[in-house]
Write a structure and sequence with these properties.
The protein has six helices and six strands; from the N terminus they run H-H-H-H-E-H-E-E-E-E-E-H. The protein is α+β, with helices and mostly antiparallel strands. The longest helix has 19 residues. This is Pogo transposable element with KRAB domain.
Amino acid sequence: MPKVQKSSYSANEKLKILLYVKEQRKPQYPETEASLKTWVIEFRKDGIAVIPKMIKIYMKEILIRDFLKQSEFLLQYKTKIGQKLPAQLSEKLLEFQQFIIKKQKQFEYELCEIGNIDETPVYFDMVGNLTIENYGVKSVQVQTTENEKNWFTCVLIVLVIFKGKQIPKNLPSEIILMMHPKGWMDEFGMKT
């Protein structure tokens, strides 16, 4: 009579199977895996973020995923309370839109005279969101240089790229314009 496979298992049976599989798994490189585990624990005790690239450099012959499973580590996001959106967000957006329309009428701006620039903060110490930490840890701390709040602003301008070789005449001088045979940005465009 053929062996019948069970269609469902109880929680105790599942736990026994998992423990059996874990006990049977022999490390491929036991000394190296133990060394890496110690290295990660020491770095985390000092509050230093450990990222997968660091493990790749430290230990090339072991796949990170297998190591993380075997050593009971987990790739986790740092815990941080971010800025919360105001409760009346839609009302505030509507008020801002009405304010802009009022100013446009008050000062008689043409719609084409209203512009937009993109300001982007660039931080001196850009701490990553991921580190390797033990399973079950609720709070993940990462040590920084305390410059994560210091930043400078980059203003991103608009660059218009037309397809072709010859620049059109009678264009406003305020427009930053570039011509490209295929109409896109490449190494040539970065040099000009």
